[in-house]
Amino acid sequence: MNKDLIKEYWKLYHESIIAIVVVVVTIGSYFWDSTYSILLLLYFSTYYFRYNAKVADVQRLKAKGLTQEDADNIQFVKRWEQSRNEGKLSYCLFDGAIVQGGILAVFLCLFAIATFGVQQLFAEPSGMFMVVGGGYLAGGIIAGAVHLLLWNRNEARFIRLTQFEHLIS
What's in the keyword line of the UniProt record (predicted)? Predict the structure, then answer.
């Protein structure tokens, strides 16, 4: 490992590292034995390697004369051009309602179970279908609506990044 990189990482993120380590070890030692606490500490140590990759990316961008914001904008334009070609319906329906709605449905179902209890919701066999179906329907509607708003925001950002007429005048 590069000692200078570790020092730089520590200088920038030492408060976060200490807080994470203290919280994880405290919670881990309370609920589990020390083996799980050690495994959690090893998991959080991977942040160093992610930071190392980020520093390498920044140095690569500086060599090209680009900033991180420039690289993010280039990546956004490439990704959004592909999503834009697929269409608004595909973006809102498939990316939003089906994929993100399914993820949101899991949390909505868990929230319903925590709020009303398993015995009350699953007293009859149809209760399970109502909770899961209702959660997926609500998640799909919410995620589809959010992706519709995101479409408009991303479209405006795409136009702002790709139209250069405002720079000429």
Answer: Membrane, Transmembrane, Transmembrane helix
pLDDT at 82: 92
Backbone angle region of 128, left / alpha / beta, with phi > 0 → left and psi within -120 to 50 → alpha: alpha
Q: Smallest Cα–Cα separation from 133: which of 89, 102, 111, 91?
A: 102
Tokens of 121: 């919701």
The CB density around residue 109, as the number of other CB atoms within 10 Å, is: 20
Q: Residue 28 and residue 41: Cα distance in Å, rounded?
A: 10
Q: What is the 3-state secondary structure (H, E, C) of the chain?
A: CCHHHHHHHHHHHHHHHHHHHHHHHHHHHHHCCHHHHHHHHHHHHHHHHHHHHHHHHHHHHHHHCCCHHHHHHHHHHHHHHHHHHHCHHHHHHHHHHHHHHHHHHHHHHHHHHHHHCHHHHCCCHHHHHHHHHHHHHHHHHHHHHHHHHHHHHHHHHHHHHHCCHHHHC
pTM (predicted TM-score): 0.61
Read off the pLDDT band of 13 (50, 70, 90): low
